[in-house]
Amino acid sequence: MQRLFMVLVAVVCTCSVRACAGDDVVPCIEALGAPINLQQTDEASALDDLIEPVGLSRGESVARRLYVAGIIGGSFATLATPLGPNGNGAGDPSPSPAANQSLFTAGGAIGLAFEALDRDWRVEFEGRSRDNLVSQRGTTFEAPIGLEEWRFTSSAKNGWSTLVNLWRDYQATDRLSLYIGGGIGGGGYQFSYLKQSAGEFVPPNYQIATTNNVSTFAWQAGGGTAYAITDRITLDIGYRYFQIANSTSTGVISYVPIPVGSEVIGSAFSASELFFAFRIYEPFRNWR
Questions:
Q1: For residue 204, what pLDDT band results from cuts at 50, 70 and 90?
Q2: How many CA atoms lie within 13 A of 217 on its CB side?
Q3: pLDDT average, residue stretch 20-39
Q4: Which of 73-77, 192-196, 280-284 reaches the highest mean pLDDT?
Q5: The pTM is what?
Q6: One domain for residues 23 and 104
Q7: Are residues 43 and 74 both part of a single domain?
Q8: Is the peptide bond before 257 cis (omega within 30 degrees of 0)?
Q9: Based on the structure, what is the number of domains in the chain?
Q10: Which of 52, 119, 262, 281: CA 20 to 30 A from 157?
Q11: Is residue 250 within 8 Å of 267, Cβ to Cβ?
């Protein structure tokens, strides 16, 4: 390591001497500053002479704190299942109503709180799961040739999301703070859809069905308030709007068991979520 520093110093000095050609070389070299003592027995001491710590903080001290968090809450979810071009035209014009259901959500996060640009921030990696959404509903549609009755069964099972969040903290009092922000990442669920005849006008064995694993872009935005129970434990109460990007799958149209065509079926999952979270700062302090 000492040889490497000696080579670097030699290169810098050589370049500086050339840049000062025609001038007094000695003052020019002295302007670079006092030389580093590379003969110290402690190699780290030589490094300390060269490198000064840089922190994401206000003032002189570094203020970064690692934390872990547990999250539980309620997810007021909506699963929309719009039909494709055929469903909006003459092929199958009956509407497909959205499913609404309250789900339980839980997960965790690991993050870093720091100060930058004279403000308090937190960046974290969050993973969460959600209960299964299973809905059965019916609708009646007045078609040009008669009254149609339909039964819809749709589900979004094994819901998950992994997001990278950025939160901006605002200190209200010594213990109370507010925050806003959001995150982006990925999310998904196992989607299934079944549309069946529920009346006499359409043959009872007519149906449209599909099953598809959705895995796509997800995002959320929200805010909340946090109360510091101790200097290391914080209770959060917050709100987030969460959404998974729309996806499509191909449904099979059949007079069971005979397939007769196909239909494009969309799936759109979104949720308004209220949650509680416990943040524990410096969780490994006692392990040192």
A1: confident
A2: 5
A3: 46
A4: 73-77
A5: 0.72
A6: no
A7: no
A8: yes
A9: 2
A10: 262
A11: no
Q: Do you know the residue count of the chain?
A: 288
58 lies in some domain:
no
CA distance 204 to 128: 40
Q: CA 50, CA 9: separation in Å to the nearest integer? A: 11
Structural domain boundaries, residue 37: 2-50
